[in-house]
Amino acid sequence: MNTKTNLFGHPKGLFICFATEMWERFSYYGMRALLILYLTKHWEFSDATSYLIYGAYTSLVYIMPVFGGMLADQILGSKKAVTFGAILLVFGHLGMTVESNEQIFYLSLALIVSGVGFLKPNISTMVGALYKEGDPRRDSGFTIFYMGINIGAFTATLLCGYLGEQVGWAYGFGAAGIGMIFGLIIFLWGQKYLKGLAEPPSSKYLKKMNGISFEYWAYISGLIMVLATWFLVQNTQLVGQLLGGFGAIFIGAWLLYALFRCAPDERDRLIVVGILILFSLIFWALFEQAGSSLNILTDRGVDRVMFGWEVPASMFQSLNAGFIFTIAPLFAMLWIALAKRNMEPSTSIKFSIGIIFVGLGFLALVYGMSSSKGLQTGVFWIILIYLLHTLGELCLSPVGLSSVTKLSPQRIVGFMMGMWFFASAAGNYVAGLIARATASESSGVSNDIFNLAQKQSFIDVYTDVGLIAIGCGIFLAVITPILKRLMHGTS
User: Fold this and answer.
1) How many CB atoms lie within 10 A of CB 486?
2) pLDDT tens digits along 378-388
3) Distance from CA of residue 297 to its chain's centroid?
4) What is the Cα–Cα distance from 477 to 425, expressed in whole angstroms?
């Protein structure tokens, strides 16, 4: 992109990606804010069962981008992949408005999972393609992109959370679906600002096999993804096995490619990407308590009365997104200012700081719960954990997206972006297991009154994960000099 197409110092295409992803995240986070409460209150599943369904669903959301990324890289290109994904998402979110049929509910989850698989990795890849190699605006651009994501998440958790809990579940889920329609319209309108970045990589999509073009085989593969997800989300134990099996395959492919298909500098950088992805898995396993166990704790164990109104528990998830889009511009300016003075922390140090912040958030909440009188914890401590976790997320997540695009060889950047989301998938599955540990045996089904045993379970689990996070962050900081050497000047 030449400078004439710039807006506020960045390519105009960034803001098309910004708006598309904002509405996609509106739809996703609007539904996510309500899901664990919908499982426990509407379907009346136990806490333990609900956590496993939630963990399986959110992990599958991050598995499918591996396949969506590969299909876009090899056949569809980003425009066709994002459009197809958006259509699946619209049907999925609107299907969530049907409250009377459990199988339609599971099918709707499957459509959302597959839609995200086609849309999310390819939007992020397009953002990376807007900047030439070595462009110092890249991290800033990804931070702005990430800010757009969280504007959508912020408004969704407030609006959909309020509608779902106060008016009716169908109204909350329906609002999420309408948001996705807006995202699709913006993406198609803004193609003129993404010229050449979103088209199929070759004419392969026109070739035919058994009378059907490769483009349509890709769409058929997407429908198969829907059916597979429909089955898996109802058989949560298989998701863990799937993660283990595919994890071994993807790690093997990554190592073989790095060792035998890359020049020495490319190999070293690709190894660093793999290590950073591993630490991102640890981060997301802890951070993603927000939609599951932390949401349940907020609903039952927190005094939510503010200014005379008992705020619905789901609306507190807006704190993370609200903090991000207010603080993200400061981070974007901070990284640029430090870079100009050759003082910007390396990617691995940013990761380290992010993981330590998430640990501090849990320990702060544990202190608040332990020092509170009775069962109910003051709302201040929930606000504080979201603030500390947000600071950690801003250090790790947008920088992580950027690091994958700038450290990976361009010819496999879509696959490595899929690997980044696969690590998030594994992290979300582990998050479900961690959340399950907070469900004390005496708590019974989800609608039981919050008791001391359940409160103590939260304190014990959150203490452990807080200490583990801080330990992992310190370890990553210690090995940073080694990683910097392997980056060969790309930090």
Assistant:
1) 18
2) 999 999 999 99
3) 21
4) 24
> Residue 147's pLDDT is what?
76
1 located within any domain:
no
Q: Which domain holds residue 443?
A: 10-487
* Pairing, β 302-303 against β 377-378: parallel
Query: Would residue 5 count as lying in a domain?
Result: no
CA neighbours within 13 Å on the CB side: how many for 192? 2
Distance in angstroms (rounded) separating the CA atoms of residues 467 and 283:
13
pLDDT at residue 8 in the model:
66
CATH number at 115 reads 1.20.1250.20
Report d(CA 109, CA 95) in Å as an integer.
9
Distance CA 229, CA 27 (A): 19
Q: Say how many C-beta atoms besides its own lie within 10 A of residue 415's C-beta.
A: 21
Identity at 44, one-letter amino acid code? E
| Residue 211 counted as domain residue | yes
Whether residue 89 lies inside any domain: the answer is: yes
Helix (H) or strand (E) holding 11: strand 10-11
> Taking a C-beta distance cutoff of 8 angstroms, is the pair 118, 82 a contact?
yes
Task: Give the residue ranges of the chain where pLDDT is below 50.
Answer: 1-4, 442-446
CA 424 to chain CA mean position, Å: 7
Evaluate if pTM is beyond 0.90: no
Q: What 3 state SS string does 37-70 have?
A: HHHHHHCCCCHHHHHHHHHHHHHHHHHHHHHHHH
Domains identified in the chain, total number? 1
